[in-house]
Structures are given as C-alpha cells and as structure tokens.
Amino acid sequence: MNDERLVQIETKIAFLEHTIDELNDVFLDVRAQVDRIEKALVEAKEQLEANANNNIDPSFQKPPHY
C-alpha cells in the first residue's frame, strides 16, 4: 500500500471518528430532551387525574382566558 493511499484512509478514519463523536453528542442531547418530555407528560397526566378527581362544578371555574 502506498503512502498516499494510507494517508487518504487515515484521513477518512479521522473524519468518521469526528462525525461519530458529533452524532453521539446529538444523540445525548435528544435523549435528554426525551427524558424531559417524558417527565412533563407524567406530571401532566398526574395533574389531569388529580383534577378529574376533584369533582368541582365547572360553573365555578374561571374560563381559560382569565
């Protein structure tokens, strides 16, 4: 294998390693976002269930625009 070909292969490997590192960072960011969304969803579900169990007459509740 000639030196030029070896340099090309090493360059491509370095580029691929860099790309993998960047993709891993993006994956970790997305995973963190998914975790936050899942937590918010659980909290919203719990709040909805708690509100459903209150049995408050809707005529005494303020409309959403107040």
How does this model look, in words?
With 66 residues, the protein is an all-alpha fold. The chain has a domain at 1-28. The chain is built from 1 helix and no strands. The chain has one helix at residues 3-52. The longest helix is centred in the middle third of the chain and has 50 residues, at 3-52. The N and C termini lie far apart (76 Å).
Index terms:
0% strand; 1 helix; mainly alpha; 66 residues
Strand tally: 0
Low-confidence spans: none
Helices, by number, come to: 1
Order of helices and strands: H
Structural class based on helices, strands and sheet pairing: mainly alpha
Q: DSSP strand (E) fraction?
A: under 5%
Mean pLDDT: 90
Q: Label the overall shape.
A: rod-shaped
Helix proportion of residues, in percent? over 70%
**End-to-end C-alpha gap:** 76 Å
- The oligomeric state is single chain
Major sheet details: none
How is the secondary structure organized here?
Layout: H1 3-52
